[in-house]
Amino acid sequence: MRSSITYTRFLLGRLSLVPLALMVVACAGAGETRTDEPVVGDGPYEARFAEARTQGADGVRSMAPLLADPDGVAQRGAMRTVREIAYQSTRQGAEAERRAVSMTILSLVQEPSAIPLEMRRLLVRMLAVPAGDERSMAALSALRGDVQLGADAEYALQVAMAEPAGAEKFPGRQIPAQDALLASLAAREKGTVDASLIHDYRELLTSPQPQMRAAALRALRRLGAKDLYASYLDCLSNADPSLRWIGIAGLADLEEAGTSARLTADWETANPDVRAMMLHALARRGDEESRRLILLTAVSGALRLRLIALELLGAQGDPDALAVLLGTLTDSDAEVVAAAASALTARARRELRKPKEERDEAKARSWLHAVIGASMADAVLNAALDVLADCAAPDSLTLARPLMSRGKTAEAAAAVCLAAAQDLEDESASKTLLLEILDHSRLRSTRKAVGKALVELGVSLSDAAARNGFVTHWFLLGGFPKPTKGDLGKHPFGRQGPDPSRDFVYKGKTLSWKEHVNDDPDAIVDLTILEPNTDVAAYAFAIVDRSTAQDILCKAGSDDSVAIWINGGLVHENNAARGVSVDEDEAPARLVAGKNRILVKIGQGGGGWAFCLRLTDSKGHPLDLRNP
What integer pLDDT is reported at residue 133 of this predicted model? Predict the structure, then answer.
């Protein structure tokens, strides 16, 4: 052992490299952050973003449709919202929320059929924010082998181990120093590698500073040093996360004979924290001895270790791992069942990513059916349903159809039912199923796909929309000035209201009504067909026949402002600047027996210009407007 003077001189000789390394890593990190964090202003989805930010993991899940939406504004805003929720979850005392957010982001990552690859890559990198517990780290570690996402998973693992950003803004988050990464870069040496250099690095293994020990281990590994098993194993019990993961990587890649046997022997005396780390190393080694220990732990280990082992089994393709995962779906512990379900879902996803001629869709579908049939938390069900949508068949409907009525699983279940509907041989059964999907799904992309399928089956979309309470037959009149806040609730048609059978003279100009019968499943009326269509207003008039009087709710969407009159009375106005969304506004009203005269005023600034109107009973159930 060298003297303390020699040791100090050794450190000072190398610390001069740290500032340069700091600049390199900081610049690289800044670049990555700009890539991961799109910026978006207030837009038509801002209310949904604001609500999601208060809902934690559920808020992350609610962003899935917008991440899949081809609208760039929706995608960027949803990604920003997920990032904000992730940072919120790192506050002091929110460990459970942090874990839930982490696993929900992971479930979004694993939805290739819905969320485009570029969004999924950003989500993988975003996992660096809430990650830190063993299960999320295990999931990231498993993703390193993914052809499309591996590099992003590697990035997230490194940042999760040593991420300095946000430490001041989020003081409750435990973020280790970045010295470990800096020192490993700073220790790179030029020239001949000799025994003296390796000896100097070995001395650093006794340093009380974790970042120096990490730098030494990285360098020794790079230089091909031998007999590092004990040093790697010692890292697993260190409080510093970067050292623990260096230990895992080192033990996983160690090629010395008998390494797995030594790990198995040391397992017997290791404490639970070290065992958790050892599981990751064993999984990455992948030999028979390592595999047996993971299987045993998944079946009979302590709860924490079972959860990690089950997660890791999802990445293993052998039949024994599959049998354990399927058997665990009947376990009495809900957390254990959820872990097995997540692992089976990941396994099915990998099967479906194989080339078409190699994958077994029936096998993947059977695993997903087993998961969904085990009845569990919505987040787990949604993850399985999202994958099942890529391989759904008519026999999937027994499980998916009831889940369209389960609130938080409605959209994922609707996507499965839509995929299965394409394989139904009975056209009548297909029509019934597609109309049922319209009853439950609110996702615009799903509803448009259903509409297209219905048209191919000869179903009128106007009738389908009217069945769900949408007013579909309108008379349109444009050419009015853009309303101000004070005159939005006023119209120029007098007490008698509009008469679409006659032209209307406004300020000396003759305007003609245009009849419009909608062919959209949400009866969204595109008003840009009117000229002019910038800084203007238009009116839409309809008559709705009802056999009896009743109290109703008017549910409107508009781009931009909107006012609604029923039988001459103003029932709603909203001076909004937004994009159109179904059922965005709601107002009580009353219909009379006979003909009800409905007038809608829609203001427009620029860009898109549209509206829709749905009528429901007082409890929100759509009126069937096909029949009085």
Answer: 64
109-148: buried (b, 16+ CB within 10 Å) or exposed (e) per residue?
bbbbebbeeebbbbbbbbbbbbbbbbbbbbbbbbbbebee
* Identity of the residue numbered 262: R
Cβ-contact 608, 463 below 8 angstroms: no
Which residues lie closer than 8 Å to 14 by C-beta, 6 or more apart?
186, 187
Of 483 and 168, more confident:
483
142: its two tokens = 């498993």
- Residue 440 has φ and ψ, to the nearest 5°, of -110, -35
What is the C-alpha separation between 372 and 404, in angstroms, rounded? Answer: 13
Helices 179-186 and 210-222 cross at an angle (nearest 10°) of 40
pLDDT in tens, 59-95: 998 888 888 887 778 888 888 899 889 888 877 778 8
Element containing residue 480 per DSSP (H, E): strand 473-481
Block residue for tokens 């220990």:
293
Q: Is the CB of residue 430 less than 8 Å from the CB of residue 398?
A: no
- DSSP-assigned states of every residue in 327-358: HHTT-S-HHHHHHHHHHHHHHHHHHHTS-TTT
Out of 103-117, 128-142, 391-405, least confident range = 128-142
Helix, strand, or coil (residue 183) = helix
Are 127 and 140 a contacting pair, CB within 8 Å?
Answer: yes
Q: What is the pLDDT of residues 314-344, one digit of tens each?
A: 888 788 999 999 999 999 999 999 999 999 9
Stretch (H or E) spanning 430: helix 427-440
Query: How far is CA 341 from its chain centroid?
Result: 18
Residue type, 494: G
Cα angle: 395, vertex 400, 402; to 5 degrees: 120
Mean pLDDT of 285-307: 92
As given in the structure block, the two tokens for residue 38 are 């799109």
